[in-house]
Amino acid sequence: IRKAAHFLTFGFLSLVIYWVLPKRKGRLLGAALLTLILACADELHQSFTGGRTATLQDVYLDMAGAITFLFIVAVVQFIRAVRKI
Prior knowledge:
- By secondary structure, the chain is an all-alpha fold.
- Helix content is 81%, strand content 0%.
- The chain is built from 3 helices and no strands.
- It starts with a helix and ends with a helix.
């Protein structure tokens, strides 16, 4: 359940970051990079919290969720663009 929480939380977080960013080229990449920074910051914070451990595996899992959600956004955008043609 914890692993699914990481995946889903950072997936949704990446979507929120994507929607907040200005509509420019590189928006998906920007959202992914900002999510990566937050995932690393979250693990750094956990390293200072008693009873918690910081692992690189959690950052990988966080980014897997972010990339999956952002990939879905990219696919939806592509489908919309193709339908306009």
